[in-house]
């Protein structure tokens, strides 16, 4: 009886099959579905944006990974190149001779335009060959050099040959000459290693990222050497030694705020302090690295503190319990256990620094430098500033090269993040 | 501990090499973003020809370049600055004050500013400078007084012009291109309107045009599109009714998608810019510190290469990049005086 009444009362209050409950349930399930749907939608939108970004970059940049080359035979006459001093020869005219040999019907007045099919580098390629082996004078040398940008664009199908002659860079005669080279099988499109192996150039067909990659590497090295030990030192002090008082709180708040300061502010600081007071050279990766270190420092301190915090107190207490000093506890136990987390944070901080442009612009790392730096004190660009320079160049060839350079930068960022994830998965311990 | 030792020694090495590398063997060049591509070309050619270390060229803008250039004499200051206008009195005073007294000025040629529109736009555009002024100025004359610009469509300025919204993309105020545009197009356009000259005369103020015709409108039709000229080119391609203002070299490189807007009936081209018939042409300069010649290795040779016929003459490699060469007689005398550093710059007003 009693059971029955209780059950009846309960059934009365919670009648799962009643309309009210069913409606309530349906509403709650609907709410859940909407939330899940919105979340999924947000992810889908984010992926769509990423896909659009990558697609535009890849479709725009793919062309830059191939470069039109022209193979040509160059007769080197002793009239133009003095065997006694081969480096001072008139190689511009040597190229002209080569075009005359290739196009026997061409008038002398047309040769200048025809020489323009070859990259400006052709004369220097020939010079270097002849200087290396002066016995070539009087003979014919075969070279395979990049075609100049307008013809590269033509080969890549970016020129509408049916359009009105006045609307394009190349006139009909120039296109016909290029067609003739093509019919002779002289035109090839090999992989554009120059994009990675050359330093910057004003000619798109010769421009490459070597200087920027080395410049970025030097800057990151300096940044790492400074921010890593300083960041760990600061974090260890704050986490393990600092008394918990108002001063420590102020320092902590400041470090967190520092991580949110816009990077251009660090650039201005570097301009005033490193270049202004210390008289360091402009455009040097050393200064770039110092500036980036200022920026990366708070990131590393915060990551390190979190990693140190994640080490359970029992480890410290056990070590102290067997008589270890505070220093022995930190360096013998806590730091090694926290290292995977610290390294992950550091790599992510460095990856951020790699993509940073604004502070580098202020210290002049957007200079035009045609040689890769050999020390951190030589003028150089960094990858993001190189992209900045190329994006602002009028030549058509730089449009696809800008996209290609962004892809290279993204490649480095993905690699660094992959290393960070690997370290985390491989070494991080869950307590 | 080893990390700490390693870092300390690494820092020491960096500090030591910093002092060792203070002696500079590369030429340093700053200055105008318009002169930048030409200096780039000379720098690369120079390095290729001589095997000397390539000069470092930085695009800082004309004004910014002058600031750095005039900081003083010595290895920490640049040797050359490019400029898309001649040096101002205030800048020269700054230079002199900091000990940079012996400067050579080199006029390298002319550069055109162009007003262009996408080829997708079917009209054959031809504007007078007066119309350009009326379309872009913050204030225009109406019934004997200056009023905020009321024009939203080209046809409101002149019924012969198309019935489309005024959309013009141009450089921001920090740009030398903008300065040149205001001076060459806006001021000239302003003065060409009779109503304005009447108001200016009535005011009795000699600087009336400078004070009242320099402001570009900020109510929408004129869009500041940033320093990146390529961006303007791309936006013109996506909006056929928009006009863009940028350096002539960008029009030269993008002839297949853009066409010129004729100004006062004259088309932008090498010949019209050189002759001065095209109204928007401006001189380009570089300035070199004579005290650095012979001290900074290769500086003298670099100046010689910059002033050589190979670079500057018609058919030279700077023309390939869009520079409009000086007439032969003018060029010859200039080459001589710049290479020999015989004419010392003195700016007076």
List the helices and strands and how they pair.
The complex is a heterodimer of chains A (431) and B (349).
Chain A: H1 2-13, H2 19-61, E1 69-75, H3 91-102, H4 111-115, H5 122-132, E2 140-146, H6 149-155, H7 172-183, E3 187-188, H8 194-197, H9 210-241, H10 246-258, H11 263-277, H12 285-310, H13 313-321, H14 326-354, H15 358-362, E4 367-368, H16 383-391, H17 397-427
Antiparallel strand pairs in A: 1-2, 1-3
Helix pairs in contact in A: 2-17, 3-5, 9-12, 9-14, 9-16, 11-12, 12-14, 13-14, 14-17, 16-17
Chain B: H1 2-20, E1 28-31, H2 36-50, E2 56-58, H3 62-69, E3 80-83, H4 89-97, E4 103-118, E5 126-127, H5 129-136, E6 139-142, E7 145-148, H6 154-157, E8 168-170, H7 176-191, H8 194-203, H9 208-212, E9 222-224, H10 229-238, E10 243-247, H11 248-253, E11 258-260, E12 262-263, H12 270-275, E13 281-289, H13 299-306, H14 309-312, H15 328-340
Pick out its properties.
heterodimer, A: 431 residues, mainly alpha, MetI-like fold, 3 domains, 3-stranded antiparallel β-sheet, 17 helices, B: 349 residues, alpha/beta, D-Maltodextrin-Binding Protein, domain 2, 2 domains, 9-stranded mixed β-sheet, 15 helices, PBP_domain (chain B), Substrate-binding domain-containing protein (chain B), Phosphate_ABC_transporter (chain B), signal (chain B), Phosphate_PstA (chain A)
């Amino acid at each position: 009886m009693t059971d029955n009444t209780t059950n009846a009362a309960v059934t009365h209050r919670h009648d799962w099959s009643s309309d009210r409950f069913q409606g309530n349930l349906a509403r709650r399930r609907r709410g859940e579905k909407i939330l899940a749907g919105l979340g999924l939608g947000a992810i889908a939108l984010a992926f769509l944006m990423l896909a659009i970004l990558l697609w535009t970059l890849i479709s725009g940049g793919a062309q830059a990974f191939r470069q039109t080359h022209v193979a040509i035979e160059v007769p080197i006459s002793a009239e133009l190149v003095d065997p006694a001093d081969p480096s001072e020869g008139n190689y511009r005219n040597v190229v002209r001779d080569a075009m005359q040999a290739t196009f026997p019907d061409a008038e002398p007045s047309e040769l200048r335009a025809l020489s323009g099919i070859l990259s400006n580098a052709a004369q220097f390629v020939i010079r270097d060959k002849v200087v290396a082996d002066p016995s070539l004078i009087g003979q014919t040398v075969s070279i395979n050099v990049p075609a100049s940008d307008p013809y590269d664009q033509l080969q890549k199908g970016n020129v509408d040959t049916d359009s009105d002659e006045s609307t394009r860079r190349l006139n009909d005669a120039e296109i016909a000459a290029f067609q003739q080279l093509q019919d002779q099988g002289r035109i090839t499109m090999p992989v554009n290693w120059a994009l990675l192996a050359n330093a910057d150039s004003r000619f798109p067909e010769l421009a490459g990222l070597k200087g920027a990659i080395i410049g970025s590497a030097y800057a990151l090295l300096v940044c790492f050497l400074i921010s890593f030990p300083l960041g760990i030192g600061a974090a260890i002090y704050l986490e393990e030694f600092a008394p918990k008082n108002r001063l420590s709180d102020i320092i902590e708040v400041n470090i967190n705020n520092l991580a949110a300061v816009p990077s251009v502010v660090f650039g201005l600081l570097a301009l005033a302090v490193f270049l202004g007071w210390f008289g360091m050279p402009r455009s040097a990766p050393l200064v770039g690295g110092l500036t980036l270190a200022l920026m990366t420092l708070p990131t590393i301190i915060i990551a390190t503190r979190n990693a140190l915090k994640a080490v359970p107190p029992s480890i410290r207490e056990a070590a102290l319990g067997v008589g270890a000093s505070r220093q022995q506890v930190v360096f013998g136990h806590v730091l090694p256990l926290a290292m995977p987390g610290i390294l992950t944070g550091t790599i992510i901080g460095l990856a951020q620094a790699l993509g940073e442009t604004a502070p580098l612009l202020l210290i002049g790392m957007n200079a035009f430098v045609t040689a890769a730096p050999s020390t951190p004190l030589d003028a150089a660009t960094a990858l993001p500033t190189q992209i900045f320079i190329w994006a602002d160049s009028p030549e058509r060839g730089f449009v696809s090269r800008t996209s290609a350079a962004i892809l290279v930068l993204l490649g480095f960022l993905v690699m660094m993040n992959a290393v960070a994830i690997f370290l985390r998965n491989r070494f991080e311990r869950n307590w | 501990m080893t990390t700490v030792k390693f870092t300390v020694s690494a820092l020491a090495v960096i500090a030591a090499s910093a002092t060792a590398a203070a002696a500079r063997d590369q030429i340093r060049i700053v200055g105008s973003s318009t002169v930048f591509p030409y200096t780039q070309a000379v720098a690369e050619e120079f390095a290729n020809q001589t095997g000397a270390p390539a000069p470092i060229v930085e695009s800082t803008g004309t004004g910014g370049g002058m600031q750095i250039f005039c900081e003083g004499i010595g290895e920490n200051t640049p040797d050359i600055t490019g400029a898309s206008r001649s040096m101002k009195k205030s800048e020269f005073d700054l230079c002199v004050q900091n000990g940079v007294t012996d400067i050579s000025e080199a006029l390298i040629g002319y550069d055109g500013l162009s007003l262009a529109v996408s080829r997708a736009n079917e009209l054959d555009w031809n504007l007078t400078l007066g119309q350009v002024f009326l379309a872009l100025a913050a204030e225009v004359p109406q019934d004997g007084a200056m009023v905020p610009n009321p024009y939203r469509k080209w046809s409101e300025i002149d019924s012969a012009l198309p019935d489309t919204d005024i959309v013009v993309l141009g450089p921001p105020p920090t740009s030398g291109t903008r300065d040149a545009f205001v001076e060459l197009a806006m001021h000239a356009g302003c003065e060409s309107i009779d109503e304005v000259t009447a108001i200016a005369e009535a005011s009795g103020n000699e600087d009336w045009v400078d004070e009242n015709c320099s402001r570009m409108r900020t109510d929408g039709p004129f869009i500041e599109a940033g320093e990146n000229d390529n961006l303007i080119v791309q936006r013109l391609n996506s909006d056929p009714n928009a006009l863009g203002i940028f350096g002539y070299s960008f029009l030269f490189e993008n002839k297949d998608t853009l066409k010129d807007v004729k100004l006062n009936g004259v088309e932008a081209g090498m010949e019209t810019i050189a002759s001065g018939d095209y109204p928007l042409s401006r001189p380009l300069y570089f300035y070199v510190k004579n005290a650095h010649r012979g001290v900074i290795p290769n500086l003298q040779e670099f100046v010689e290469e910059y002033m050589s016929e190979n670079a500057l003459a018609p058919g030279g490699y700077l023309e390939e990049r869009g520079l409009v060469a000086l007439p032969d007689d003018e060029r010859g005398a200039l080459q001589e005086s710049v290479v020999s550093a015989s004419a010392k710059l003195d700016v007076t007003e």
